UniProtKB/TrEMBL annotation:
Organism, scientific name: Deinococcus metalli
Keyword Nucleotide-binding in record: yes
Keyword field: ATP-binding, Kinase, Nucleotide-binding, Transferase
Sequence similarity: Belongs to the carbohydrate kinase PfkB family.
TM annotation in the entry: none
Protein name (record): 1-phosphofructokinase
Domain Carbohydrate kinase PfkB: 23-269
GO molecular function, one term: phosphofructokinase activity
PANTHER family hit by this protein: 1-PHOSPHOFRUCTOKINASE (PTHR46566:SF5), 1-PHOSPHOFRUCTOKINASE-RELATED (PTHR46566)
GO cellular component: cytosol
Pfam families in UniProt: PfkB (PF00294)
Signal peptide start and end residues: none
Length: 295
């Protein structure tokens, strides 16, 4: 069981626009998709598609929280959820045919509520935990560090203060992208990840967009991504982490786990997001995914 714990869950509304986004102008939306959102649910979708056991954990509130529960259940994803005061946030993803990277507009979400978090942590099933996404508004960093320590070495996919807390709290893995690593160390490179690992002892799973990904720990491995037509890259990092954790839990070596992870991230971008993810497509890309020398 891989537990996908998301401190700030959301309803994700993906809106396909009828034309390129133009500020100050009217746009019509011929297609809308609403899903139980956040990095954790995306990760769980990929783990389940690949054949693993998983659950989505977090707090929800209000009408949006009830909608989140219903959408998660409709997908057949198991949820370990606690109710809080306030309203689960909505995140809007604006896409267009043949356009650039989608425009994302994210609300804040309910304020941090320690009693609900304590109840949630007490209910988590056994298994490795991935802590995914931004912190709830008002979360004290000391409380977040204490949560990470209580989880006994989770993988952490966050940014800014969340990544700093992960490094200070004995995370088993952090998953920054190049921009997040640059904010952490001053450089978004494999060499800077090596220095970070040498200093902290926390392995780094570095996502590099269309270039692929790298794992930097006691072992260093770099994998190049295949060339695919990108339909929607949102969720590709979540897909990559989910596939990596699934493969490692299944006993795969780091190079083989990283190859599957990059194939999954590429398949997500090709197919248009985690809701459309297909494990067969990811595995069909594996012959095009190669380990390359670190640079």
């Amino acid at each position: 069981m891989i537990v996908a714990l998301t401190p700030n869950l959301s309803l994700d509304r993906t809106l396909r626009l009828d034309r390129p986004l133009m500020p100050g102008r009217l746009h019509r939306v011929p297609e809308v998709t609403v899903a139980a959102g956040g990095k954790g649910p995306n990760l769980a979708r990929i783990v389940r598609a690949l054949g693993g056991e998983t659950c989505v954990a977090g707090v929800v509130g209000g009408h949006n929280g009830a909608h989140f529960r219903a959408l998660l259940a409709a997908e057949g994803l198991h949820g370990v959820l606690e109710d809080v005061e306030g309203e689960t946030r909505e995140c809007h993803i604006l896409t267009q045919e043949g356009g650039d990277h989608p425009t994302e507009i994210n609300e804040m979400g309910p304020m941090y509520q320690p009693d609900a978090v304590a109840r949630l942590l007490a209910r988590l099933p056994a298994g490795p935990v991935a802590v995914c996404g931004s912190l709830a508004p008002g979360t004290p960093l000391d409380a977040f560090r204490a949560m990470l320590r209580a989880l006994d070495g989770p993988a952490v996919d966050s940014s800014g203060p969340g990544l700093h807390a992960a490094l200070e709290s004995g995370a088993s893995l952090i998953k920054p992208n190049e921009h997040e690593l640059e904010a952490l160390t001053g450089h978004g490179t494999v060499d800077s990840a090596r220095e970070l690992y040498a200093r902290t002892g926390v392995p780094v799973l570095l996502t590099r967009g269309p270039e692929g990904a790298a794992y930097i720990g006691a072992e260093v491995c770099v994998v190049a991504a295949p060339h695919v037509e990108v339909r929607n890259p949102v969720g590709s990092g979540d897909s990559l982490l989910g596939a990596f954790l699934y493969a490692r839990q299944s006993g795969e070596t780091i190079p083989d786990a990283l190859r599957l992870a990059v194939a999954a991230g590429s398949a997500n971008a090709l197919l248009g997001g985690p809701l459309r993810f297909d494990a067969a497509v990811a595995r069909s890309l594996l012959p095009q995914v190669h380990v390359v020398p670190p640079s």
